[in-house]
Amino acid sequence: MALCLALNLLNLSCKQEAASHVNRAFYYWKSVVTISDSETSLLDTLNTKKLYLKFFDIVKNKELNQAMPIAKLESQNKFPASSDNPEHEFVPVIFITNDCFTNSDTAAA
């Protein structure tokens, strides 16, 4: 009986897991987009389909006591394969600093 139990446990523990699929993505945090040909080539080599782009930051203006955008995204060149390959996805990201939430007037919303 113990032998059957041990053999069953051994059999169950020896299963091969299915290979996991990895979707690579990167976050581009700079305010000026200058993606070089070598960086584009690296994105293609790594089979990267998604690129997160920081569009701007939102910070609290202490003088006006309100949140304001700064460091807006500027593009120096065409995004890699954005129009050539519809498989690439560009996700806009907005970074909101903690100051925007501290001492905020919730009644104004």
Description:
The chain has 109 residues and is of the alpha/beta class. Helix content is 19%, strand content 30%. It has one domain (23-108). The strands form 2 sheets. Strands 1, 3, 4 and 6 form a 4-stranded mixed beta sheet that branches. Strand 3 (50-61) and strand 4 form a beta hairpin. It is elongated. 2% of the residues are buried.
Characterize the overall form.
elongated
In round numbers, the mean pLDDT is 81
Please state roughly what percent of the residues sit in beta strands, choosing from under 5%, 5-15%, 15-25%, 25-35%, 35-45% or over 45%: 25-35%
**How many β-strand stretches?**
6
> How helical, in percent, are the residues?
10-25%
Given the structure, what is the number of helices? Answer: 2
Number of domains: 1
Question: Which blocks of ≥5 consecutive residues have pLDDT under 50?
Answer: none
SS content category:
alpha/beta
H and E string = HEEHEEEE
Radius of gyration: 24 Å
Alpha carbon gap, first and last residue:
69 Å
How would you characterize the largest beta sheet?
4 strands, mixed
Helix and strand arrangement:
Layout: H1 2-13, E1 25-28, E2 32-33, H2 37-45, E3 50-61, E4 66-70, E5 74-75, E6 89-96
